């Protein structure tokens, strides 16, 4: 289940919440036949005592459940029918809850609503009262024990990481940030270059990703050298092995015909990216990388990343690790059962697990590209005039090169919405003669801040593909060596797959512009986070 399908909140009693809940609940049987006063009284009570959960999706209330707290003995006697009257509400030291209202706008929200009730009523015996309007007597359901649900840890992680990213955008727009970052955030190009040019001194510390699998993305120094030699040869060959037309075919098969559905563009792009990487590796079949398992892995990773930054319980870490191990095991087992892939993995290396290396590479190679394609679709939806212009100029010329506007568009998407929006490193030793970094000092680099640095970008917060910084030189090429532009980083730890990524983005943009129905929206996308930066 996607925990981000809807946001679960416990609300306050106020006019807005009362009206929203009443409007939702009274639209569904049996509540549409209840007296207005009775309904309103119950809802008011549940809002006031916070004995409820609300499910919100894109600003709309899509689910509501409310209950009364009671003493377990009274609730049990009510359940058995020994007492017909509803137990008196008990606000303190209650050990049971009787759910009296559950309404969801669509059945897809029901599992989340049930988990939300269980989570809010953790430790209580939860009974459910079901009423009918056709004369049948009320049905009293046996109790279940409410429990803490891991799924809500994902929601908290998502809110924390999205909050952090939005804070970076707030600072980028010249306002004071709201969060107190425990480590300094850098946006100055010269300082950032210092860090990226010295990978042995500023090492990676992505423990949350290491918990998924060991691979080149997270290792340092000699271990990294070995691992990068293993895969870089494929990435370097990728543009020859996967020509632009083949990538267009892939994106055309997987991107949705209309951009309306939630996550449809991301999921389609993810599948196309999996095929692209598989072909880059010289494989005849796409590597098994199923959407549902990957979504589950992403949630666990996001949770672990949030715990690293904001803290969390040992039990959450344990559960996340257990879930992740099991998912990864299922994926790797599938790979081992595929003779061609198993053979390929076997020939790669015996020094360490090629399977684990591949797990990490698949994550690095697909999440970022899919998120960028999603950003491109959202920006096109908000800028119909630009879409029309791209339709007219085209995305690729006859030689297969990006047209100027298409190139400016892709560069600008990666500038304002860098998929990897911030990066962390730990300094290993001081060099007082050169700079002020201390041994063991952790640093965070905001690519959002760098890409919107006011000394390097005119009107930095404006999405402006034809901005002066992207003006082509005389021969029609844009100089990409901008000092405050590093969506793929720089130095030895630069993105291993950037050439393939750029080619994929070209193919995907072509498909979006020429083959997709882009549903217009009134606003530029808002920013949220899901392992990489994603439109909200
Ligand atoms: C728009 C798409 C992409 C973006 C914006 C992007 C960005 C990045 C960034 C910023 C890093 C460095 C992270 C860090 O050091 O903390 C990175 C690393 C990496 N990326 Fe990408 N990436 C993209 C697509 C890809 C693709 C398609 C592949 C593979 C086919 C790939 C493979 C890798 C690998 C292997 C690394 C680790 C490099 C190393 O340290 O050895 N990426 N990427």
UniProtKB/TrEMBL annotation:
Its cofactor is heme. One of its GO terms (molecular function) is iron ion binding. Pfam families: p450. It comes from the Bacteria. Heme binds at residue 495. The keyword Amino-acid biosynthesis does not apply. Gene3D superfamilies: Cytochrome P450. InterPro entries: Cyt_P450, Cyt_P450_E_grp-I, Cyt_P450_sf, Cytochrome_P450_Monoox. The keyword Iron applies. Keywords: Heme, Iron, Metal-binding, Monooxygenase, Oxidoreductase. Belongs to the cytochrome P450 family. This is Cytochrome P450. It comes from Thiomicrospira aerophila AL3.
């Amino acid at each position: 289940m996607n925990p981000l399908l809807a946001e679960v909140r416990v609300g306050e009693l106020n006019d807005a919440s009362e009206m929203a809940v009443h409007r939702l609940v009274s639209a569904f049987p049996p509540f549409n036949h209840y007296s207005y006063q009775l309904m309103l009284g119950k809802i008011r009570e549940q809002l006031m005592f916070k004995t409820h959960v609300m499910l919100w999706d894109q600003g709309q209330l899509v689910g509501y459940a409310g209950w009364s707290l009671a003493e377990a003995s009274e609730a049990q006697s009510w359940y058995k029918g020994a007492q017909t009257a509803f137990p008196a509400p008990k606000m303190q030291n209650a050990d049971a809850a009787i759910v009296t209202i559950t309404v969801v706008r669509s059945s897809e929200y029901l599992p989340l609503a049930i988990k939300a009730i269980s989570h809010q009523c953790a430790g209580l015996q939860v009974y459910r009262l079901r009423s009918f309007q056709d004369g049948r007597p009320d049905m009293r359901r046996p109790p279940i024990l409410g429990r803490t649900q891991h799924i809500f840890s994902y929601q908290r992680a998502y809110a924390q990481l999205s909050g952090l990213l939005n804070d970076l955008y707030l600072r980028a727009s010249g306002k004071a940030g709201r969060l107190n970052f425990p480590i300094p955030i850098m946006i100055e190009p010269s300082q950032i270059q210092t860090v990226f040019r010295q990978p042995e001194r500023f090492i990676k510390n992505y423990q949350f990703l290491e918990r998924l699998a060991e691979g080149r993305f997270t290792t340092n120094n000699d271990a990294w050298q070995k691992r990068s030699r293993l895969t870089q040869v494929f990435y370097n060959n990728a543009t020859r092995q996967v020509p632009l037309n083949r990538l267009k075919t892939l994106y055309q098969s997987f991107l949705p015909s209309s951009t309306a559905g939630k996550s449809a563009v991301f999921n389609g792009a993810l599948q196309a990216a999996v095929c692209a990487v598989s072909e880059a590796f010289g494989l005849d079949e796409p590597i098994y990388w199923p959407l549902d398992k990957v979504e589950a892995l992403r949630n666990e990773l996001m949770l672990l990343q949030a715990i690293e930054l904001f803290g969390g319980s040992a039990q959450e870490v344990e559960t996340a690790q257990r879930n992740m191990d099991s998912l990864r095991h299922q994926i790797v087992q599938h790979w081992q059962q595929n003779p061609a892939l198993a053979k390929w993995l076997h020939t790669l290396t015996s020094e360490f697990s090629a399977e684990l290396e591949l797990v990490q590479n698949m994550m690095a190679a697909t999440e970022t590209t899919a998120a960028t394609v999603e950003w491109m679709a959202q920006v096109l939806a908000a800028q119909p005039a630009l879409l029309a212009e791209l339709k007219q100029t085209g995305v690729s010329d006859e030689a297969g090169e990006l047209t100027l506007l298409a190139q400016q568009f892709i560069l600008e998407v990666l500038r304002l919405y860098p998929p990897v929006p911030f990066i962390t490193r730990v300094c290993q030793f001081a060099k007082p003669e050169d700079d002020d970094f201390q041994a063991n000092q952790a640093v965070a680099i905001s690519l959002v801040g760098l890409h919107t640095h006011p000394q390097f970008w005119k009107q930095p917060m404006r999405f402006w593909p034809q901005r002066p910084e992207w003006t082509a030189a005389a021969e029609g090429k844009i100089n990409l060596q901008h000092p405050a532009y590093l969506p793929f980083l720089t130095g030895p730890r630069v993105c291993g797959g950037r050439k393939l990524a750029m080619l994929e983005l070209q193919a995907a943009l072509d498909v979006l512009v020429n083959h997709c129905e882009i549903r217009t929206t009134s606003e530029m996308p808002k920013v949220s986070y899901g392992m990489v930066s994603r439109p909200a």
